[in-house]
Amino acid sequence: MRHYKTLTWTDRLKIEAWQKAKIKPQKMAEMLGVHFSTVYRELKRGQYEHLNTDYTTEMRYSPDKAEDKKQNFLRAKGPDLKIGNDMAFAEFVEYWISKEKYSPEAALGKIKQLNLNFKTSVCKQTLYRYIEQGVFLTLTNNSLPVKKNKKKKKAKAEKAAKPPKGISIEKRPAMIAERSSFGHWEMDCVEGCKRTKGLLLVLTERLTRYEIVRKIKDKSAKSVVSALNALEREYGSRLFSIVFKTITVDNGCEFSDYLGIETSLNGKNKRTVTYYCHPYSSWERGSNENQNKMVRRHYPKGCDFSKVTQKQVTKLQNWINDYPRKLFNYSSSSDLFEAYLNEIKTVS
User: Fold this and answer.
1) What kind and span of H or E run contains 184?
2) Number of Cβ atoms within 10 Å of the Cβ of 30
3) β partners of residue 234
4) What local confidence, expressed as pLDDT, does residue 158 receive?
5) How far apart are CA 166 and CA 273, in angstroms?
């Protein structure tokens, strides 16, 4: 079985004869020793509309048209591909984009993160071009987790019809917006399909982009407070108040119990400070919104979170926190968060 080889003129003549004999593309690929997607692409490349003698038309394959397109592409593509015969590099990139749902840039970042040495080294733009050209065996544009988004104009904050339950974001210290200190979080809920109760409570630390994901049974203030109580038990009351200095939320009903969010398990001390965004101003929780897109790579809109286990949620959380980030020179949020946490424990 050959791999990563282009089709020859003889191969194209065989494909033409096999198509007339109504042999299926999968069988053609088997006889040629190539992946079936190679044959499908080839048939599409040489496809044309043939006029029969009875004036009916049908789609046929022309080896001449396919060969012309190939030669035109070779003349236009410029210098030889840098990837060459580096199969290890190709397989690594295909795995992290197709299986692990990484972006091409993050896949290259993973190489730096793991300190791997391949014969091939390409930039982000070149890797995107290779994917566009169909250089990889199984990797296409459809494999990419995120398509290019149009830049949106930043909206102005809406005026609230009524005051928030707690402190408005207008009174949040400016240094929190600057992301210059650790321990300031954004909190949101990621919902599943309609008429299902399960959903995910997500917290994003603004400086490190560290993500905490917890499954809660319904969209109620009680469930949110219960999840935060469980986090306080996990960290301990003293450490919780240091790690979770502030939490910024929207005005959803699930975050309406600001006293429950802010009050420690002992019922006396204040464990955090809650700030409420302006109505319809999700950009004021920008980190949350970006992280939610990462959640949706694994759980698209319309999924039923009641069927998702906490073990699966923890796996998602680890995936997000281990993701290589260009912002941190391809270190992960987990690396940064652990460093700050260890520093706090040492000082304490």
Assistant:
1) strand 184-191
2) 14
3) none
4) 55
5) 9
Q: Would you give the DSSP letter of residue 191? A: E
200 and 214 Cβ atoms separated by less than 8 Å:
yes
Q: Are 135 and 84 in contact (CB under 8 A)?
A: no
The amino acid that residue 117 corresponds to is N
List the one residue out of 63, 60, 50, 67 whose CA is nearest residue 20. Answer: 60
Q: Is the torsion defined by CA of 16, 19, 25, 30 positive or negative?
A: negative
Angle at 25 between CA 21 and CA 29, to 5 degrees: 110
Count of C-beta atoms within a 10 Å radius of residue 94: 17
Burial class (CB in 10 A: 0-12, 13-18, 19+), 191: middle
Closest listed residue to residue 43, CA positions, set 77, 76, 84, 11: 11
What pairs with residue 59 in β-bridges? Answer: 49
The residue behind tokens 């029969």 is: 52
Of 333, 282, 290, the closest CA to residue 146 belongs to 290
Tens of pLDDT, residues 70-121 = 776 655 555 566 676 788 898 899 999 999 999 999 999 999 999 999 988 8
- 6-28: burial string, b at 16+ Cβ within 10 Å, e else: ebeeebbebbbebbeeeeebeeb
Amino acid at 37: S
Terminal CA-CA length for the chain:
62
Q: What is the pLDDT of residue 4?
A: 47
Residues 6+ apart with CB under 8 A from 296: 190
Local mean pLDDT, 10-residue blocks, the chain (348 residues): 67 91 91 87 88 84 86 60 77 92 94 91 90 81 70 54 76 93 96 86 97 95 96 95 96 94 92 94 92 93 90 96 94 96 86
DSSP assignment of 228-248 equals: HHHHHHHH-HHHHHHH-SEEE
- What token pair was written down for 29? 């690929």
| Full-model pTM | 0.72
Amino acid, single-letter form, for residue 253: C
